[in-house]
Amino acid sequence: MKVLEKRKLTYKDIDKLPEGHYEIIDGEIVEMTPTGFEHGDLEGKFFIFLYNKLKNKGFASVGEVGILISKKPLRIRGADIVYISKKKVKEKPKGILEVAPDLIIEIISPNNTVSEISEKIEDYFKIDVPKVILIEPTTQKVFVYQNGEKDIKVFSFDDEIEFIEGLKAKVKDIIKD
After folding, report:
1. How many Å apart are CA 143 and CA 131, to the nearest integer?
2. Which residues on neighbouring strands pair with residue 83, listed in sequence order?
3. Which of 29, 140, 150, 157 lies at a C-alpha separation of 20 to 30 Å from 173?
């Protein structure tokens, strides 16, 4: 990755950001640790699930999808899996998402901390993402956060979960080989 000059990035820089795995927190690049094979495999399986079930209703994407949280100070989060309906965008988005997705799915990695995950969820809710689902492969738990609700719903991979209104599935069925 190119070393950027020591200045805070602003919204004006959004179209010329360098390639790489990072988020921008208050104008500063925060490097992200590369994920492992299992993480990528799970991302792919959730993408295929969302794409196959919702391709006529919206768009799904994976791989640290950049989501604009704020312009000033510049704050961009990288989400593992996103789904955004055609009600919100008419055409497949390009570049950093400047519209809140309808659903974000995050795969928890062993190096994630509770505070990192909590801050990300708070940021997603600030831009009105309605639902964030955390997948914890180690414990085979699923945590469902609804914007505006204080209670976090906890499920196992064997439980049926509603991803988007009308779309339910068991995680074990999505990730089976």
Report:
1. 11
2. 60, 103
3. 150
Q: What's the whole-model pTM score?
A: 0.92
Query: CB neighbours of 168 closer than 8 A, spacing ≥ 6?
Result: 160, 161, 162
Which CATH code for domain 36-65+75-175? 3.90.1570.10
Q: 10 Å Cβ neighbour count for 98?
A: 15
The alpha helices in 33-167, defined as continuous H runs, are: 37-54, 114-126
Please say if the pLDDT value at position 153 is more than 50: yes
The one-letter amino acid at 56: N
Report whether 113 contacts 139 (CB < 8 A).
no
| Least confident among 14-18, 65-69, 80-84 | 14-18
Token pair of 32, please?
Answer: 């992200």
Would you kindly state where each structural domain of the chain is located, as residue ranges?
36-65+75-175
- Structure token digits, residue 50: 């969302």
